[in-house]
Amino acid sequence: MVLGGGEGDGTGCVLGGRDAAMDAALGALYGGGGPGGPGGPRKGAGARSAGLGGSAPNVARWLGDIRTYFPSSVVQVMQRDAIERLGLSALLLEPEMLEAVEPDVHLVGTLLSLNKAMPDTTRETARAVVRKVVEQLEKKLGARTRATLTGALDRSARISRPRHHDIDWNRTIRANLKNYLPEHRTVVPERLIGYGRAAQSVKKEVVLCIDQSGSMAASVVYASVFGAVLASMRSIATRLVVFDTAVVDLTDQLDDPVDVLFGTQLGGGTDINRALAYCQSKITRPADTVVVLISDLYEGGIRNEMLRRVAAMKASGVEFVTLLALSDEGAPAYDREHAAALAALGAPAFACTPDLFPEVMAAALEKRPLPAP
Question: How many Å separate Cα 91 from the centre of its chain?
Fold first, then answer.
């Protein structure tokens, strides 16, 4: 869509009505001109205004305008651009502003980064915004994750003398094809392969080790939701650890991912080695443990010690997964030297979308090659 306006637009078109209002909403954010904005007085039909002004009413009115004129996906992009380009983070500390925005993962990341500066009058509104996003993500990702991982746990717990209703017939038939009797058109199953009863007890342990530096905001949100989903499965013992230069174990809060998120503190330095040392100390069943490090690998701690810890965990039987990002934001920035060093240890590092994460975890639980993009 091409929107016209003043002579600088070069189209020679004059907009009116809804088109002029859409042009003003876009111009307020992307016009790069004076201070006007949708909250200020209207200019001539051919003029563009730019800037959202310095007051919350102006911004709240603009937020209402863009939700009227654009679909939700576009609104979320424009909100993100407004926060980044115009420095509107401080206005998100006002309850009326939070009630006006379209909640999404990126907004949650911004709120978490402002957590410590948030006044009490805003905190409950912020939690409501975060909870809405978390519930949407859990609804979208939870059922598929549970189904995928339950299947992986069943397959990883195969037994050789199963009861009739526990027989994995597909694998049993494939394992006995040499016993096919053409005259009877049947397979004689000399060896039965069955599913274990994965739901009766803890079969696997998963440790999510999450870098909470500022660049990892979206990954922190998704990882917290997945952590809560994993914790809801009785056959998986889940531990969630977040770190910067300090390490915080949030496992006790996994029943509510909103509490987990507000227990994080985005920003600060990074000490992966210290975080892995803590995680390593909590591993009691290495052969049945999956450690997932979610980090861009910009290490501020002791690099060689970090690599030695990863090597030691793998040697003990731990499945080690390194995700450079857990988000839909595209290719992340990361420390390529550290990623190459981990790959040399047999722990390839790659970015992962939320939709792919259940498959990655299923492969790790079954100790088969990871579906890295």
Answer: 25
